[in-house]
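Q: I'm teaching a short session on how sequence maps to structure, and I want students to see two examples side by side rather than one. Could you give me a first protein with its sequence written out and its structure tokens following it? Keep the formatting plain so it prints cleanly on a handout.
A: Of course. Example one:
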Amino acid sequence: MNEVEQLCEAAKNGDTEKVRALIESGADVTHFDGEGLNPLMHAAKQGHAPVINILLSAGAPWNALSPSNLSAGDFAMQEGHDEAFELLLNTGIQAELILGTIARKENKNSNSDHDYLEDRVTFSEDKLMDSDSKAVMMAWEKPLMEAHAKAVCSGGGHILNIGFGMGLVDTAIQQYAPATHTIVEAHPEVYERMLSTGWGQKENVKLIFGRWQDVLSQLETYDGIFFDTYGEYYEDLREFHQHLPALLKPGGIYSFFNGLCGGNAFFHVVYCHLVSLELENLGYSTQLIPLPVKDCLGEQVWEGVKHRYWQLDTYYLPVCQSVEDSE
């Protein structure tokens, strides 16, 4: 048995002394064994928190993935090992606060916002697609968008939506008859479609064409705000959050499409906590409401779609409000 296999075996058995000794003798904490797992995954699977601590201190990557796309945090979650899970979760949050490694990795794997805005898009009954067969928005999101609309319209008044897409959330917002309904859309073809389908003629609707970063001076203050852009990243969402105090009225409700790391359950939890923490630092409390989506996502939903941007059974809908108003 080589050193890697010995380290994996010691991690699996919770043998802290042997784990320490092997690390001190130079065993590589990042290597995978024949099962496709690294020492941290073995320790997480068995719930050995002290071993996890040692491995993390020795540089074991918290965000490494097994061949089946699972991280150590996923294994701890699946097995219900709360202490191990919390330890990995806190490590993930701290690492992402400082480095934002997952967000940056996702940036590299995607087109930039500007590429998307210059791209041709195609509309069908159940999806809006870019020229690379990636879905911009899909009809399965309709119940989620209706829930978002209900949240941001709960106080009535003036509503802002950033990103029209297929118009699912805006159609739902209209059902609540807001005093005014401002929509910001940056893609020229999507904007043309909005005009051709009558959105410019609605009495309470104000359309603004452009990237939200470029039209901030045209925005006012609102009772409810929803944010759902395509081709942008976590850094863009974070930047938008810096403008919330100027855009959201006291007592107003803010929500956003929570597609953060939608392909991995543990990374998604890390980002849910991360965004809640960052909003808290801006003075907002965030409630995450679980919505089951498994039944909306049969295989046929993804036919012809290059990238499955959502692969989890539960969607966590964020409802954000200033801390003074939510108490």
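Q: Perfect. Now a second example for contrast.
A: Example two:
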Amino acid sequence: LKQTITARLGVSVYLVEQTPIPGLYMLGTSQGVLYSDAKGDYVVQGVMLDMTRDMKNLTISGMREQRRLGLAQVAHAPIVLKARDERHRVALFLGEQDAARR
């Protein structure tokens, strides 16, 4: 399914998970969350709510999982940018290629 969607839509697919609906898969992609059948013949973009669990937003849950997986792949410690009168802190995470250039 990853290869099919990448070839047809030109987007990278990082995550494929079965949804509560049989035959429907949630895809974490470089362009956000999509839903597809097992063959990749039908793709839907939108929000999926679980009405049996107080309208739990399954799309947001999938996005959180995609972010978690992405951060787990960061092998290097973040660069923390500080200011003299610090009110906020920014952490910069670099991919392996960017970290090698540092």
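Q: What should students look for in example two?
A: Point them to this: Residues 98-102 have pLDDT under 50 and may be disordered. Also worth mentioning: The longest helix spans residues 58-72.
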